[in-house]
Design a protein that fits this description.
The chain has 8 helices and 16 strands. By secondary structure, the chain is an alpha/beta fold.
Length: 289
């Protein structure tokens, strides 16, 4: 008799668990991270409105647009999310024609490159000529001669690869180094810097990955018709941020510049990148003389 009662209690307990489980999907759906674009198809250059919800509200979390099929550690075109906001809207510009994903990285400081939510969309060309231009980007190209700027200084075609984080806690610094280097005014004025969106599109279309390995850099640089590629890695050791940077000459197939420096915080890191860029620019200009 006692065994029968115990068996009955066990059955009742299982039924209760099943009822709770049946209600969980709807409850989880209410709290799961969500992200969505306002449309599924855009024209190149059009405004992309990205709506997000159920975010933790950390100012270190971010949302990005990358080419479909890109690895989860590709930053693409990204923006940091406003601190304290669990839901909202972020504005991007539709990149070159192709298939893309918008991705959200919540609790980034703890999880690193773990995608919390993603949503696919496509970008079409406004005019047929645009589509032809997009196709031409993924074809192999010969390395062009450097153009000459108005001041008589050779204007080289340069790409800045995303700086590889050597640990999860260095991922933010990899993004900071890459964006800071690209946006240095002197870099912008002296070199023809390849647009990050075009680089991401090319890599995705050709199943390639950007890293700081010399052979890979030379292969990608040659196919894109670049004169130089800047790449490197970032490591976090305690309170120190260690950055290793190199510039590779595609034509000469060698390293034209290398530099390793230590920073003690984000502000110091940005300052050091800007200072280092002066030596980097001089080395690139000097290497072709």
């Amino acid at each position: 008799m006692q065994k029968a009662r115990l068996k009955l209690k066990h059955i009742v307990f299982l039924i209760v668990l099943m009822l709770i489980a049946a209600g969980c999907p709807s409850a989880m759906a209410d709290t799961a991270p969500l992200i969505k674009t306002d449309k599924e198809i855009y024209n190149a250059g059009e405004t992309v409105r990205v709506n997000y919800s159920n975010a933790p509200g950390s100012s270190r979390d971010w949302i990005c647009i990358v080419a479909a099929g890109s690895s989860d550690n590709d930053a693409g075109d990204y923006q940091y999310m406003p601190g304290g906001a669990s839901q909202g809207e972020m504005i991007f510009t539709a990149p070159a024609p192709g298939k893309y994903e918008v991705r959200a990285y919540y609790n980034y400081s703890r999880k690193g490159y773990v995608v919390s939510a993603r949503y696919s969309f496509s970008v079409l060309s406004v005019a047929p000529a645009k589509a032809v231009a997009a196709e031409e980007k993924i074809k192999p190209a010969e390395i062009p001669a450097a153009k000459v700027a108005a001041a008589g200084v050779p204007q080289f075609n340069v790409a800045v690869f995303h700086f590889t984080p050597l640990s999860v806690d260095a991922t933010t610094y990899g993004i900071i180094v890459t964006k800071t280097l690209i946006n240095v005014p002197k870099m912008q004025s002296l070199f023809a810097i390849m647009d990050r969106k075009d680089l991401e599109f090319f890599l995705s279309a050709n199943n390639l990955q950007q890293d700081d390995k010399i052979d890979n850099i030379i292969e990608i640089g040659a196919r894109l018709g670049l004169n130089f590629v800047i790449a490197g890695n970032v490591e976090k050791r305690g309170s120190l941020i260690i950055t290793d940077c190199k510039a590779v000459s595609i034509a000469k197939r060698n390293i034209a510049f290398t530099n390793k420096f230590i920073s003690t915080g984000e502000a110091n890191l940005v300052s050091n990148v800007v200072k280092m860029s002066n030596s980097l620019i001089e080395a690139i200009l000097r290497s072709e003389n």
